[in-house]
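Something for you to look into today, if you have time. What I am after is a single protein written out in full by you. I want to see for myself how the chain folds. Could you add the entry underneath, on a fresh line?
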Amino acid sequence: MIFFLFVLTVFSHPLGALTLKEIVSTQKERAAKKAEPSPHQKETPFVAPTSSVPKGEKSSPFSSFTQKDVEIKVQDEIQKSYGDNIAVKFVSWHLPRQKFKDVSQFIVEAIEVNEQRTKIAALVHFQIKGVLKTLKIRGRLEHMIDVPTLNRPVHYGETITKNDLSWTKVPGYKSNRFLITTPEDLIGHQPRSGFLKINVPLYQRDVERVKDIEKGSMVTVLYKTDKLELVTKARALEHGYKGDTIRILNQDTNKILQGAVIDVNTISLTPYYKQDNQ
């Protein structure tokens, strides 16, 4: 089954010739006279009327329209019917500059969508010095999803915050279990290395949690009992996040100890710290 979107998109400039309405209608009338359609033949897509164009005025140059203009209008019509989360990936096509150098207006007509909603074909009528030219352009429908991305470059060592995020649409086929789809997987993280670009989908391999303790940094070490409380400094021998147990070096005694990360650059040597805080 094929679905038809009967749409009309007209770009027009003053032209000293027939309008697209007149040209398309004339072409169809001639075709109808030559052969009566059979009962099983598909109906000719309807073309809505266009506004009349004053005669005696010069046509606009081809530069008024580009291939991108045509694709944008097809995309707009698809989204009107199927929603903003649908994008069209067009099969390679082009407008021959010599043949279409006098184009003054075009109509996007009869967009066909297959039953699986994966492919489209659109008829594009061009008026060239009063003569109708038609091209059929094809494309693939892509279902898009919204993912959080960065609205500014973020470098290693910078922590990503809520204000750094925006939303970007990406094709659904790029989604996998490693693609970051929720802001919570970015907020409080930093680039794993280098920097992250603007509006680029991010994967788990691109970011890491901001470490509470960096390997090699000096940390505050606490030891507390009912009768005693000690505070000293030591060097971290490995990275750590809050709740982790890591190794530290007491530089006064040159002994390696193990402690629990309780805050940024803070280690507790208090026995059973983890059990007491569960």
About this structure: Residues 6-18, 40-63, 272-278 have pLDDT under 50 and may be disordered. The radius of gyration is 33 Å.
